[in-house]
Amino acid sequence: MNINKTPTNISIVAFALIAIPILLTGCGQSKHQDSVEPKPGQTLFNFESDAELRQLKLNNALATLSHINHSQAAKIEFLSAHNHESMVEFVPTEKWNWSKFNAFGVALDISNSENSSVHLYVTVKDSHGSRHNRSFVVPANSSDKYVMELAGIDLNIETGIRSNPFSWQDKYKPIIWRYGSKNIDLTDVASISFKVIGVPENKILHFDNVELVEPKQIDQDYLVGLVDKYGQSTKIEFANKVSTDVELVKKSQQEIERLNKAANFDRSKFNGWKSGPKLPATGFYRVDKYQGKWTLVDPQGYLFYSNGIANVRMANTTTITGYDFDPTHIKPRDPSDLTPEDSIGLNTAPAKAWPTRKRTSDLRANMFTWLPEYDSTLGQYFGYRREVHSGVIEKGETFSFYQANLSRKYQMKDMDKVERTWRETTIKRMQNWGFTSFGNWIDPSFYDMAEYPYFANGWIIGDFKTVSSGNDYWSPLPDPFDPKFKTRAFITVEQIAKEVKNSPGVLVCLSIMKRVGDKWEATKVNMVSH
Fold first, then answer.
1. pTM (2 d.p.)
2. Which terminus of the chain has fewer CB atoms gathered within 10 Å of its CB, N or C?
């Protein structure tokens, strides 16, 4: 999907045809050369000797040689239980030169003998500091071949999708794209690293047969017909994939039956620790001290720990279709708007614009095998974006398969009834799954459901001055000394206060969030009581 963006805004939070690959690797050239050019038939690492193990750079990790799958491999223990980051870095004796190949990737075998999966963050870095970042999950009790594409047509095409479908037709599992530079300097590759981040237990993986491979065949239609009528991928099969409305309704009914069985958690009315210590009740969530330590406290006075899922909302469920309308029929954004374009809901184009509908991107339009007619029941889930964060087109029609599927599975045509049923089901899910609150960017329609805590949110939008952090993927930081910023900040906070209506469910009143790499970071947090 295309990712949407406003000019300047800061988020405020209240709280495989099978092809045999050709090996292209090499690592044993003269030490008089600056970099190592790959040679067919050689691997980068196969861990048949201790020498290769010594080429690994470790940070909060241990490495030993171990036999697995009838081969010797590098056994890496990520010491993540007591370290936020744990890493193994594959470093050549001399810089790698991989520039001769038009389409290739780094492939490797990874085995996980443990009973839990491992989420790995991967970085390929050149000597100039440019980083190519990807990530993937190694399933529990698995042994697979993985590949990360480092050169090819796909890395030079803008689709509006964060990580495109895999175009290679072969045996490898793709490592998906995250962020950074898609095209690093392949004449001077310095290292490949694998990280475990933010996991409260140690992880063990076996790495073997690190090599360069190129595809013998590419799926030329890998971006065509990607999405079926339910918004699902047509390219792969997966659990719970549906093919008819009947299946969708059945799965929904089965879920409701499960959710109606009350979960047995030790919770107060407001999800506090019911059998734990109790402080005076105030009717609102607050921060207070218990035995000399700060803690959240629920409205009834029970100690409270907040954990929940972010972005539970109807906004952001749409995708760009590749169609647009005569712009004279589209209402422009108001400079005084308080909500970013991607967070205002569907914003469907007016009926007078429909006769002017036309294709503006064959690439996007050809991704869909089905879209409804505007005058049909599901046509009400078309939307419009007057601006986007990035992608192949700058604006245009959108469609929400998510909301259309809600209408199908609840067997309702009225949008308000669909959303009301969705909210009720969502609350049951959160309670049944053990969450104590919603995370950030919750749909504002939940603000009235006072017994389930949430983080009310808003955005500071305006033409105030900004300061670059060096990583402004979403937006640069605001200049807090600019009077325009102060004015817009107060307007936004006042709007949030109107929306929450003094609800006891709101947890935290203010934090300023900024996107840093692949994480959101709070640059300032003010916790206040009511």
1. 0.84
2. C
Q: Is 471 helix (H, G, I), strand (E, B) or coil?
A: coil
Residue 211's Cβ-side half-sphere holds a number of Cα atoms within 13 Å equal to 19
Per the document, the length of the chain is 530
Query: How many angstroms from the chain centroid is the CA of residue 127?
Result: 28
Give tens-digit pLDDT for 281-333: 999 999 999 999 999 999 999 999 999 999 999 998 999 999 999 999 999 99
Kind plus residue range of the DSSP H or E element containing 488: helix 483-500
HEC readout, 14-59: ECCCCCCCEECECCCCCCCCCEECCCCCECCECCCCHHHHCCEEEE
Q: So what's the pLDDT on residue 28? A: 36
The predicted structure's pLDDT at residue 512: 46
Instruction: Report residue 343 as tokens.
Output: 């967070």
For residue 29 the two structure tokens come to 């050239």
3-state helix, strand, coil in the chain (%, to 5): 20, 30, 50
Measured between alpha carbons, how far is 222 from 187 in angstroms, rounded to an integer?
A: 29
Backbone angles phi, psi at 118, to 5 degrees: -130, 125
Coil, strand or helix: which one is 476? coil
- Spatial separation of the C-alpha atoms in residues 430 and 404, rounded to whole Å: 22
How far out from the chain centre does Cα 395 lie? 22
DSSP 152: S
For residue 217, which of 461, 49, 84, 22 has the smallest C-alpha distance? 22
Pairing, β 173-174 against β 203-214: unpaired
